[in-house]
Amino acid sequence: MTAASTQRVADIPENLAFAFERACMAHAGDVAFSCFGHETSFAQLEAATRRCAAFFSSRLGLRKGDRIAIQLPSITQYPVAAWGAIRAGLTIVNTNPMYTERELHHQLSDSGARAIVLLGGAVESMAAIAARTDVEHILVVGPREAGNAQIPTHGAVLNTFALDEIIFGSSVDLLPDIEISMEDIAVLQYTGGTTGVAKGCMLSHGNVYASYTQLSEAIPPHPTKRSIMIAPMPLYHVYGFQTNVVSFLLGGGMSVLVPDPRNLGSVIEAMRAYPFTHLAGVNTLLNGLMRHPDFDTVDFSHADYTFAGGTALARSVAREWYKRTGVHVYEGYSMSETSSALCLNTQEHRELGTVGRPHSATEVKLATPVSVDATAEPRGELLVRGPQVMQGYWQRPDATAETIDGEGWLHTGDIAVIQDNGFVRIVDRLKDLVLVSGFNVYPNEIEAVIASHPEVIDCAAIGVPDEQTGEAVKVFLSSTNDALSAADIREFCRTQLTAYKVPKHVEFLSELPKSPAGKILRRELREMSRNTRN
Fold it and tell me: By three-state DSSP, how is residue 75 classified?
C-alpha cells in the first residue's frame, strides 16, 4: 500500500492537479496565501493558476514534460506559477534567486528548461546566459512588467511576458487537455552530491502527494480551528515547497509567506498579524527570533506546532523556545531526494535529540551497522524506502544507481542510530557536505571555484561549528602569492558562489596534508580546526 493507505482508494486523486482542484473547490472562500498583507483565496488561486496553465500551453507552446524554472522569493506568484505549471503538465525546476550566473547556467542547462519565471531586476543577467541554454521565454514579476517584449541576445531571442498581466487578467482560456499520472515528474529539485555537482531529484506527482498524505497523517488538522502557518522557509527549497506550496495548501490551510526571513522583524510582524497555529523554521531562525527585542510580544496562545528541519536542532534552543512560548519544537529529518520529510516528532510521539519516528509507509534501516564497542548502540548509514523516495537523478543513471540500490533503498549518506522505541537519531555524516542555515554546501564545489584562482596551489573546504548558522565553511589553501589575503579569496568566491557558500574562515598553509597518493586529507584539517578552537 502507498502512504495514502488510510484513504479509500476512490479518494486518491489521479495526479497533483486533481488534488489541487479538489482543495480549491472545498475551501473556495478561505484564504490560501497571505503576502505583504495581500490575501489570496482558494477560489482566486484556482482562477489565477488556470489562466497561467492555459497561457503556458496555448501561448508559449509548452508541452507535457517540458521544464519551467521558477526563480522567485516566497511571494504569492510562486505558488501561482507552480500550480499553473503542474496543471499544464509541466515539470517545475525550483531555482534559488541568489544563484550566481555560473550556478544558474548549470541548472538551466542541465534541466533543459524552456521557460523561467523571475523578478524583473534579474532579466538582464538571465539574458546574458540565455544563448547557452534552452530558455525561450521569460515570465517577469516586478518592475519590468511594462508589457510583453522580445530581448535579442547573443544568437537567441527571448520572449518576455508580464506574469501579473496573465494571472490577474480576464482570460478565459480553457485548461489544456492533458493526461497526467502519478508517475509523471512534477518537480526537479536540485541538490548536490558527494562530487559537488548539482543534480536534479526527479520527484513524481506520486512522490509529492505521498509526502503530503504522510504529513497530514502525522499532523492532522485541528478539529475546531483554522490552520495558519507562518512560512519563512524559501519556497524554492524542498522544505518550504513541500510544506507550504503543497501540503498545507492541499490540507486547506493558510500560509503567511515571508519573502525575506533574514529580516527577523518581518517574521515577527507576520507572527503578530495572524493567530497562527504552525511555524516552520530552522535552528538558526528560531535562535535569532528569540533574540529579537519584540519576540516576547508575539501571541503564541493559538500555536500548536513549531517545526525545525534542514539542520540539527540545538537542545538549548528547543528548551528556551518552550520556556518562552509554551510550544514545543518538533524536529524532523528531510532530503530533496525524498520530497521532504522522512521522520518527524509529533505531539503524540516526541523525543528531544531525535528527528522522530519514520512517516507512515516508510521503512528505515542501517547499512552495515557498526559499534564503537560492544555496549554502544549500533550505528551506520541510514537507508530509507517509501513512496516519497525520488524516481532518480535527472539524466544521471550512474548517480541514481549509486544512491538507490536494486531493492529500492535510498542511501542517505548520514550516520544514524535507530533506537529500540523507533526514534531515529542522526549522529554523523558520511558525506562531506556542510549545512549552513539548513542549506547544503558541498566542499568540492567550493574547492573547484577557489582552485580556478591563478594564485592558488591547493585548497580544501570543511565545515566548522558556528553559533549563528550551525556550520560555516572553512577553507585551507596554499598560494604562490604571500600577499594573497582571506578577503581576496572571499571576494573571488562571491563572483561565482551564492552568499551562504562563501567561506567564512580562510586559513593559509605552506602545504596541505596529503596521503601518499596525493589526496588531501580533510580529516587532518578537521583535527587542526578542532585544536585551534580548543
Answer: coil
Predicted confidence band of residue 474 (pLDDT cuts 50, 70, 90): very high
What span, in angstroms and rounded, lies between the C-alpha atoms of 296 and 294? 6
User: What's residue 380's pLDDT?
Assistant: 86
Spatial separation of the C-alpha atoms in residues 312 and 310, rounded to whole Å: 7
Is the predicted pLDDT of residue 433 greater than 60, yes or no?
Answer: yes
Task: Give the up-direction half-sphere exposure of residue 341: CA atoms within 13 A in the CB hemisphere.
Answer: 36
Cell of 54: 492555459
Alpha carbon distance 252, 240 (integer Å): 16
Taking only the tens place, the pLDDT of each residue in 29-69 is: 999 999 999 999 999 999 999 999 999 999 999 999 999 99
Whether residue 198 contacts residue 107, with contact meaning beta carbons closer than 8 Å, is answered with: yes
Nearest to 92 by CA among 6, 201, 214, 176: 201
Q: Please list, in sequence order, all residues whose beta carbon lies within 8 angstroms of the beta carbon of residue 91, skipping any fewer than 6 positions away.
A: 65, 66, 67, 68, 85, 185, 186, 187, 188
In terms of Cα–Cα distance, which of 345, 300, 353, 290 is closest to 326?
300
